[in-house]
Amino acid sequence: MQRMKQTTLNVYAWFERRLQLEGPVKDAALHQVPRQTASWWYVFGSAAFTLLFLQIFTGILLAMVYVPSAGEAWRSLNVLNHQIPLGWFLRGLHGWGSNFMVAIVLIHMAQVFLFGAYKFPRELTWIVGVFLLLMTLGMAFTGQVLRFDQDAYWGLGIGASIMSRVPWIGGGLVHLLLGGPIIAGATLSRFFALHVFVIPGTLLLFVFVHVWMVLKLGVNDWPMPGRVVRRETYMEEYHHLAHTDGIPFVPGAFWKDLIFSGAILAAVAVCAVVFGPFGPSGQPDPSIIQTVPKPDFFFLWIYTILSYLPPQMETPFLLIVPLLAIAILLALPLIAAEGEKSWYRRPVAVLLVSTLAVSWGVLTRLGTTTPWSPHMSAWSGDPLPVNRIHDATPLARQGAVVFQVKQCRNCHSVGGSGGERGPALDTVATRLTIDQLRFKVVTGGGNMPAYGKNLSPSEIEALVRFLETLHPANEPPAYDASRRAVEATQAAESAGEASRLAPHPGSTP
Amino acid sequence: MRPLAQVLLACLAALTAGCEHAPGYPGSPIVRPHEVADFDTLYDENCAACHGAKGENGPAIDLANPEYQALVDDATLRKWISGGMPGAEMPAFAQSAGGMLTDAQVSALITGMRTRWSRPSGFSGPTPPPYAQTQTGDAPAGEETYQARCSACHAPSQQQITSPDYLALVSDQALRSMIIAGRPDIGQPDWSHFGPGGKAATPLTAQEIDNIVAYLASLRNPTQATNYAPQQPDATTPAER
C-alpha cells in the first residue's frame, strides 16, 4: 500500500516537473472571490460549461453510428433508436442536453445582465458570451437539421426562404447554405461539417477565452446599490473586497456549481428517459404531403411573430431585427461600462428582461397552440360526436357526410377535433338561424370560402340541416321570428291546398 | 464507495434491461404514408370520419354490421373503396382514381374489415336477397310496399327518407344495402325485421326491395343532385308539399 502510494506520487512528480500545471491550477482554484459572490445565482455559467461537455461526449458517441448522407441519415437514427442498446437514451440525452443548454445559456445571460456583470472590466467576457449564445443557437439549429426528418426538411426550407429574402445576395446565400439550389445530400454534408467541426471548434475556443477571462478578472462582485463602477477605481476596490471579505473559489463557491451541474445532468437524464429522444418524424421527402411540420421549441416564437406580422413587414423584420438585436447586445458593455450594477437602481434593465421573458413565453405559448396549417386529415379521419349522428334525421346525417366530404373540418372543429382556422361549430346553431347558416355556407366571407358554386342545392340543404343540429341539448337553435310567421301562413295555405289534393303519402313537412 | 457503485450498476442494468419499458422509449419508426399497412391506422385515418370509429355510429353506413359484411363480396368492396360510389358521397380512395391509397392498402382494408367485423355464420336467419339489383323495380308497387312495411316507422314527419334532398345524396345501391342489411347502430332493422318495433316479420322479397328502391328513386329530383345547378326556389316535388 505504502509502496503504491509512493510510486503514484513519483509518477505525478515526474509529470509535474515537465508540465508545471500545479501552479496555475492551484492559482485558479484557490483565488479569492468576494464572499457574497459564492451564491446560487452564479451557477448557470458552470452549468452551461458542463452541458457543453455532455454534448461533446454524447455527440461523439452519436457520430459513431450516424451516417451523414441524405439516404441513410434517417435510417441510422432509427437504428440508434431501436437496434442499439440505449441508443435511444443517448439520442435523448443529446437532444435534451441541447434544449437545456440553450435555456441555461439564456438564463445565464439574463443573470449577468441583471447583475451588471458585463460592466468594466468584463466587457469582452460579455461580448465573447454573445458569440457563445449565437453559436449555441447555431448548434441547436444545425443539430435539428442533422435529424433530417420532415421537420428538419421543412425547417430548413423555411430557413432557406428567409435567407433568399436578403437583397442582391439572397440567392447566393441559399446556395451556400444548402450546397446547391435544393435540399439534398450536399446540404446534409454541409450541416454535418458545421455541427461537428466548424461551430464546436470555434465554440471551444471562445469558451476557453471566456473562462480564462472569468478566472483572470475574478467572479463579479455582488451588486450593491450605491457601489458604482468607475474605470479608475474598480480594480482596486474589487481586490480589496476579495481579500478583506473573500473566500477561496474552491471549495467556497465551487461546491454550489458542482451540485447545480449535477442536478442539471440528472434533469437531462430524467427528461431523456421520460420524454425520450426527439424524432425522427417522417422521412424527409417533399412528395409526402401528409405532414404537419413543426419548428423546434426554441424557434417557435419567430414563427408566431411572422404569422402575426403583415406580409410587407416580414422581410424587413427578418433581416433587420436579428442584426439589430445582435448589434445592441454587442454594444451594450461598451456603452454602459460604468455606473450602477444593482438592479435596485436599474429599473429599465429589470423591465426589459421581464418584458422579453414574458413576451417570449407568450409567443411560444401561442406558437404551440396556434394551428399553423389546417388539419388536413380531419375530414376523413375524425369521427363526429356519436350523439349528433344518432339524434339526426336522415337528411341531417347526409349533411354530416357532406360536411366531412367537403372538408369543412380542415378549418372547423366539432366535438373538439378538427382545424382551428374557423370557429368551432359545436354550438353554431345557437348563433345563426338556418337562413344565416345557409347564407354563410353559400357566400362565405371573412376567410370562410364560399361554397355556393361547389355544392348542389341538395347538398346545401343537407349541410344546413346538419349545422342546425349543432346546439347543446338544453339550448334551442336560434330562429328568426319573422320566418316563423311566414312558415305558419305557409302551413295554413298548404293545409288548405292539401285538403283539395289527395294527401301524398311520402310527404315531409 | 462500494455501495454507491453497486447502486449505479444496478441502475444501469435496470435501464438496459427495462429500456423498452421506459416512458421515453421511441415508438416504431414512422413509415411513408403509402407503406402503412396496418388496418386500424388506415381505417382511422381514411374511413372513421364517415363510417364511424370502429365502423359504426358514423353518418354513413355501418361497415361493422356483420350482416352487411356477409352481404357484400370482396370485389364490390374494392370497387366502391377504390373508385367511390357514384350517386353517393363516398369518395374514391385508390391512387388510380386520384385518392391516396395504394391497391395493397385497399386490400388491407378489406381483409381487416373481414377479420374484424364479419362473423362466421353470416346471416343467421333466412337467406337474404342478393346484394345488387336483379330486376327493374316497379315504382307504384314499391310505394304500396313502402306504405305497408316502412311508413310505420318512417312517418312523414319523423324520418324523412322520402325527402328528395336526402334521396339526391344516396345512391340506389346504398339504399338497397341499408334495407337488406339494416343499420343496427342507428336502429334501422334488416330486411327480415320490418315488423312493428323492428321485430321479425315476413322478410321482404328481392322483388319488393327492387320496387321500394324504384319508388324512392322516383322521388329523387335529378336536377337537385347535380352540382352547380342554380337553386330553384319553387322546385316543389310532391313530397315537399
Describe this structure in words.
Chain A has helices spanning 2-19, 22-30, 44-63, 73-82, 87-114, 123-146, 150-163, 170-178, 185-217, 234-244, 249-252, 254-275, 300-308, 311-335, 347-369, 378-381, 386-390, 394-405, 428-431, 434-443, 457-468, 481-500, and strands at residues 32-34, 246-248, 413-414, 417-418. By secondary structure, chain A is mainly alpha-helical. Chain A has a two-stranded antiparallel sheet. With 241 residues, chain B is mainly alpha-helical. Chain B has two domains: 33-117, Cytochrome c-like domain (Cytochrome Bc1 Complex, Chain D, domain 2, Orthogonal Bundle), CATH 1.10.760.10; 137-228, Cytochrome Bc1 Complex, Chain D, domain 2 (Orthogonal Bundle), CATH 1.10.760. In chain B, 44% of the residues lie in helices and 0% in strands. The longest helix of chain B is centred in the first third of the chain and has 16 residues, at 2-17. Chain B is elongated. At the A-B interface, α4, α5, α12, α16 and α17 of A face α2, α3, α7 and α8 of B.
Considering the chains and any ligands shown, give keywords for the structure:
heterodimer, A: 509 residues, mainly alpha, Cytochrome Bc1 Complex, Chain C, Cytochrome Bc1 Complex, Chain D, domain 2, two-stranded antiparallel sheet, elongated, B: 241 residues, 11 helices, 0% strand
